[in-house]
Amino acid sequence: MEHFIGGTMMLFGDPQAILIFVLGLVGGMLFGAIPGVNMLTLGAVLLPFTINMNASHAVMLFSVIYCAGVFGGAITAILFNIPGAPENAPTCFDGYPMTLKGQSGKAIGAAVSCSALGGVASAILMMTATGAIAGWAVRAFGPQEIFALIFFGLAVSASIGAKTLWKGWLSVFVGLIIATIGTDPVGGVPRFNEGSVFGLEYQSYYLSAGIHFIPMILGFFAVSEVITQAMSIAEGTRERPKAGLEFPTLSEFWSVRVTMVRSIFIGFFAGILPGIGATLAAFLGYSQAHRASKNKANFGKGELEGVVASETANNAATGAAMIPLLALGLPGGALTAMIMGIFQIHGMEPGPLIFINSSDLVWITFAAMFWANLCIVFLGWLQTKTVVHILRVPFRWLAPGILLLATIGAYALRNLVIDVWVMFLAGIAGYLLRKTGYSAAGIVLGLILGKLGESAFSKSMQLMDYDFLGFFQRPIAAGLLILAVIVITTSIINEIRDTDFQKALMD
């Protein structure tokens, strides 16, 4: 406790540190809310300037940006069906339908409160158990366990956003196929960067880098939403979003208390594992809430529990992601890799010795993340009262701005024009997917987890001398794979039963 108090005093006892804290908090929230131009963009811009900063100020700045940026993406997800970052994609599923029903304030209020709750809980767990948890995670989770976890995640999330289980799985398979475009993770062999389509030969070295998921997300959510709204306006059937300032009541929060606790543990567990992080945490949190809810039919139509589940889980992953970084020197994602770079710039190497050699730096990081998540409550609720008024702007004025920001976000990612083309093609495909009942979220999930899963599977097979049964010789991997098979089997049985029941009603 005294270490935490000392870190807090270092943070708030220095006017310069306070200024950096506030700028990081506001900057993270603003950049997190801009589709494509997210907290990673802000981090990349600021990283060179940290060379001349105090080490504690530099690490604290990026820690605050991390916490605020994960929350910021929820705002555009709820108001415009455009997630500011991949980890906010599941928030769209129920957040935007709530906006259409005039409950935007309630949805953002839930996102604010649950983001803070998940982040604070994760920060507390991070402060109390960093060394022990990180050591256990690295010992217990090798490539086999990570592949099994990803397989389980795909199994439980396959039907998200689809009208039927079969369409959900087909969407995920399409995402997995797209994930194979680029370069083989083992041999470095190019795949699908040349060939012929409809008799036309093509060759593109741009495809050697693969299809990135950010342009796909911007296309499926931002561009397809613009197309959908434009078509609705043309047909005279557009349902205009309503600005609302009603916040969730204490009784509504109490009714989803189990979902909050479950999502905290899901997010924390996912955050500990390098390379998994907040995106899988959000999808797992949402899918588990859907499976356990008594109101399954309301999910995707404006269910508050859906917003609570995804935003609690993705913010709970932030503090957990710092555990392997600080205790073992293993970054769990792009922004934590930047934080590791800051340590190295200032002559420090993250790992067990950092708790001895630079304990004050570690604890100011812990304190900054704790207080940043608490500040999200006050800044977020204040922001809610102003940002919902954007919904009163006519869509014909908003649409060009949305497309411009999305295009900048897609191009700025890798400075490749092909990413802009991918975004617009994904936008057209996303519009068609909505019309036919397939799942854009399933494709995105397959694309994101496909790359991670293929890499983990390749490493696993090499370690096991290409004996697939080796997965079942590791208890955690075996347990996750068996659970995934049970989930798939149960889903098929339930889908067949529901189909037979519907046929019986029609007869």
From TrEMBL:
Keywords: Membrane, Transmembrane, Transmembrane helix. It comes from the Bacteria. The keyword Glycosyltransferase does not apply. The keyword rRNA-binding does not apply. Pfam families: TctA. The chain crosses the membrane at residues 18-47, 59-80, 107-134, 146-166, 172-192, 204-223, 264-286, 325-346, 361-382, 394-412, 418-433, 440-457, 477-496. Signal peptide: none annotated. InterPro entries: DUF112_TM (IPR002823). Residues 18-445 form the DUF112 domain. This is DUF112 domain-containing protein. It comes from Rhodobium orientis.
